[in-house]
Design a protein that fits this description.
With about 400 residues, the protein is of the alpha+beta class. It has 3 domains: about 60-75 and about 290-340 and about 355-385, Efflux pump adaptor protein, beta barrel domain (Elongation Factor Tu (Ef-tu), domain 3, Beta Barrel), CATH 2.40.30.170; about 75-105 and about 255-285, RNA polymerase II/Efflux pump adaptor protein, barrel-sandwich hybrid domain (OB fold (Dihydrolipoamide Acetyltransferase, E2P), Beta Barrel); about 110-250, Helix Hairpins, CATH 1.10.287.620. The chain has 6 helices and 14 strands. The chain has helices at about 5-15, 25-60, 110-180, 185-230, 240-255, 370-375; strands at about 65-75, 75-80, 85-90, 95, 100-105, 260, 265-270, 275-280, 285-290, 295-300, 310-315, 320-335, 360-365, 380-385. The strands form 3 sheets. It has a 6-stranded antiparallel barrel with strand order 1-10-13-12-11-14. It has a 4-stranded antiparallel beta sheet with strand order 2-9-7-4, with no helix packed on it. A hairpin with a 3-residue loop joins strand 11 and strand 12 (about 320-335). Helix 3 runs antiparallel to helix 4 and helix 3 (about 110-180) packs antiparallel against helix 5 (about 240-255).
């Protein structure tokens, strides 16, 4: 009978023999793979973190962005300055107009009549001025005549004084003779009467001199007033200047019957029709400028730490997409948030206060050349990025 192998020897040989690929443990392989993928993932996360940190340090910390931004413009509200019926309307909504283009006209009939009346008033004022100048010579002659009247009155006074003196002397002689009875009472009475009449004539002569002097003073005052009215050129005369001002006003009102565009822009909100009677100050349409627009970007309060006037801004519009980029500058920050200027500001009356992040409008001026190349419209959305590191 052949020899049988020892079982213990067979067990030792199996324990010392190496493992083959067929009996490799699956758990060890999975663990190694998991460790490899975790290391790779950690590497990718680390690289992304480093890239984000580099982006924030080099770019992100230097810029603040918002998509809460909208296009605005200082529109012109067209209002007539004179009353009247609308004669013609030359434009319609969405129409592009240029500075000086006629928007509408008002019936000029009344304005033309006002100009004609003002021209007549000016002509009358100028004629009156020339007539006043012509009467200056007549008034000067009157002054000379009043001086002659004074001289004649003085001569008459001298003659009257001589007559009064003669009457006095005659009366004195008759009074002396009357004591001796050489002169009758009748003759003495006649002498007294003559003396009284002479004194009365003397008073009349003196009054005549005073009247002549007063007449001369009045003539001199009239002449001085006349000279004051015609002193200086005709254009400085008050009546003429007032009449000319009324004529200028009438002509200006006539020019205002034609309403023109104040600048280049687009017509909007037209609310006037032909034949409609308009009053001064009545809004009839709006002109929106196409090359003088701005953007109001509403930034969060935490984004405004480094925002300053004059910083550069890059903007994009949803109208053109990312292919068109606008460049502007910060021109100012609003004086308060929109809620602060509300008619009824929000108030927390319950005491349960929850902080709400506020936004402050930042005014950004756009480049007119870029606006001409790619026009915008009021109210469009914009993405605004401010370079706070510049």
């Amino acid at each position: 009978m052949a020899d049988q192998p020892d079982p213990e020897i067979i067990a030792d040989d199996l324990a010392q023999a190496p493992l083959t690929a067929d009996n490799e443990t699956p758990k060890a392989t999975l663990a190694e793979r998991r460790k490899t993928w975790l290391l790779r993932l950690a590497g990718v996360v680390g690289v992304v973190a480093l890239l984000w940190l580099a982006y924030y340090i080099l770019i992100g910390s230097r810029h603040v962005s918002t998509d809460n931004a909208y296009v605005g413009a200082d529109t012109a509200q067209v209002t007539p300055l004179v009353a009247g019926a609308v004669d013609s309307v030359r434009v319609a909504n969405t129409q592009v107009v240029h500075k000086g283009d006629i928007l509408l006209t008002i019936d000029p009939a009344d304005a033309r009549l006002a100009v004609a009346r003002a021209e007549a008033d000016l002509a009358a004022s100028e004629r009156k001025y020339r007539e006043t100048g012509a009467t200056g010579g007549a008034l000067a002659a009157q002054v000379t005549a009043r001086a002659s009247d004074i001289a004649r009155a003085e001569a008459e006074l001298t003659a009257t004084r001589a007559q009064a003196e003669k009457a006095r002397v005659d009366l004195s002689r008759r009074q002396d003779l009357a004591r001796s009875g050489a002169v009758s009472g009748e003759e003495l009475t006649a002498a007294q009467t003559a003396y009284s009449a002479a004194r009365a004539q003397l008073g009349v002569a003196e009054a005549g001199i005073a009247q002549a002097r007063a007449s001369r003073a009045a003539a001199q005052q009239q002449y001085a007033a006349n000279q004051e009215l015609v002193s200086g050129p005709i254009a400085t005369n008050p009546d003429v200047a007032a009449a000319r001002a009324r004529l200028d006003t009438a002509r200006l009102d006539l020019q205002r019957t034609v309403i023109r565009a104040p600048f280049d822009g687009i017509v909007a909100q037209r609310s006037v029709q032909i034949g409609q009677r308009v009053a001064p100050g009545t809004p009839v349409m709006t002109v929106v400028p196409v090359d003088r627009m701005y953007v109001d970007a509403n930034y969060k309060e935490a984004q405004l730490r480094k925002v300053r006037v004059g910083q550069r801004v890059r903007l994009k519009s949803d109208l053109y997409g990312g292919s068109v980029e606008y460049h502007g500058r910060v021109v100012g920050l609003a004086g308060g948030t929109g809620s602060a200027f509300a008619i009824i500001p929000a108030q927390n009356a319950t005491g349960n206060w929850i902080k709400v992040v506020q936004r402050l409008p930042v005014r950004i001026a756009l480049d007119p050349a870029e606006l001409r190349d790619h026009p915008l419209r009021v109210g469009l959305s914009m993405d605004a990025t401010i370079d706070v590191g510049g």
